[in-house]
Amino acid sequence: MRGANLGRGHLLVISALTAGLLAATGTPAGAATAPAPRFSPGAPGAGDPYFPDMGNGGYDVGHYDIRLAFSPGTGAIDATTTIFATATQDLSRFDLDFQGPLTISKLSVNGRNAAFTRSGAQELVITPPYGLRKGSPFVVSVSYAGVPQKIDDPALGVSGWVATKDGAVALNQPIGAATYYPVNDTTADKATYTQTITVPAGLTVLANGEPGPTTTHDHQTTFRWSMNRPMASELSMLAIGNYDVTRGVAVGGLPNITAIGRSIDTQPGQGKVFNETTAQIVQWESSMYGQYPFDSTGGILADVGVGYALETQSRPVYDQDTSDVDGDLLAHELGHQWFGDSLTPVRWSDIWLNEGFATYSEWLYQEKFNNVPVQETFAKAYADEKDWSGKVADPGRDHIFDDLVYNRGAMALQALRTKIGDRAFFDVLKQWPTANRYGTVSTRQFIQFVERLTGRNLASFFQTWLYQPGKPQLTR
Ligand SMILES: [Zn+2]
């Protein structure tokens, strides 16, 4: 993410599967050798101290199939989300995250109606008709409808489903996904996605990944988008409205789909410029960070009114209210495709691993395209920074989007470069995302990675720059 103020973020299959799953997951009768399973509830959170209710325990999602019809007149959706998961314990009960006023009309597990309750702000508590054995796959299907409501968090801003003048845009970092689909809302549980979205003919739908066929019936058009690489829910995205779409290619023939909202006042030819600049930056970043991790790229310039841009997977969204939608900002959000999207911190306290590297991408962009040396940008940031009170690698729940994380994160990287030298540093920039492609990471893992790669003990360096409040001394 980068904000305006940031100093410059089968239904058909179910019936076929059900019979087999019932046999596999039902309580075994008279099993003489295996101990009887002890079914217990999955945890209602994934263990992140900043967001204790986010995510859940006891299962792992493999795929989300979101089918949603949107009515711009009322702002309502009518949806069925089908979740393909595997139990990671003997489960008597489990939670999904789902929040806001949407009403659930039907919920099934492996094709059989399941009991459910909604508890607290975001827990959807599901009790299947029988226990789910550890290791067994299961399918949850939830049908629901209503007008989704965005989240407006006093510290973290607006996220989730945001109604716009001509449709809606969904931006889900950190806690928005559950405003329009039931989800295991934790970066620890990445999954693939299919989003099949029906809107009145004439509107356009964009989402993560690659487009499928578009069909129109009775003045309703259905768009289908697939993300076939693991994606954290906070990086899922939808944009519905009037858009001019530009299709091009980036490095290695990568499909490059960009779009600009028609209501946005732009110069003639901006669609082509936006598309080509995206391609140019993806190519340049690939040369530094290693192979681009997804099967398509692009970007969406939209009138959302949230005041930030977000690194939604494979296709960032740039709100037109963001300070400047320019090369720096594209370099930031596209840099996140490696740092944040492909590799993702498992805890939100480690978000500097996203934002420090994305901000550093801006600094590199300034050097490459505007002749401003990175060291000069660093020196200015170091001189201008007034607040050295927080911890970069543990900023606190309400500070995950603060300058602390962005600028001091990037400063820590430039200080590391000075310490270990250009050659080792650029090795880190390429090897770290390559080694952790599609995975989850922590600051501890990063420190170990750099120490192994350089053969140096950097404990006190990282202690000073990441964990200790106060202005670090500059030493070589
Ligand atoms: Zn960012």
TrEMBL record:
Report the GO molecular function annotations: aminopeptidase activity
Q: What class of enzyme is it?
A: hydrolase
Q: Which reactions is this enzyme annotated as catalysing?
A: Release of an N-terminal amino acid, Xaa-|-Yaa- from a peptide, amide or arylamide. Xaa is preferably Ala, but may be most amino acids including Pro (slow action). When a terminal hydrophobic residue is followed by a prolyl residue, the two may be released as an intact Xaa-Pro dipeptide
The EC number of this protein is 3.4.11.2
- What range does the record give for the signal peptide? 1-31
| Cofactor(s) named in the record | Zn(2+)
What sequence ranges are listed for the domain Aminopeptidase N-like N-terminal? Answer: 63-233
CDD domains (UniProt xref)? M1_APN_like (cd09603)
Tell me which UniProt keywords the record has, alphabetically: Aminopeptidase, Hydrolase, Metal-binding, Metalloprotease, Protease, Signal, Zinc
SUPFAM superfamilies per record: Leukotriene A4 hydrolase N-terminal domain (SSF63737), Metalloproteases ('zincins'), catalytic domain (SSF55486)
**Is Zinc among the key words of this record?**
yes
User: Does the keyword Nuclease belong to this entry?
Assistant: no
What Gene3D superfamilies has UniProt attached to this entry?
Answer: Neutral Protease Domain 2 (1.10.390.10), tricorn interacting facor f3 domain (2.60.40.1730)
Peptidase M1 membrane alanine aminopeptidase domain location is: 328-465
User: To which protein family does this belong?
Assistant: Belongs to the peptidase M1 family.
The UniProt entry, under PANTHER family, shows:
AMINOPEPTIDASE N, PROTEASE M1 ZINC METALLOPROTEASE
Q: What is this protein called?
A: Aminopeptidase N
State the organism named in the record: Amycolatopsis plumensis
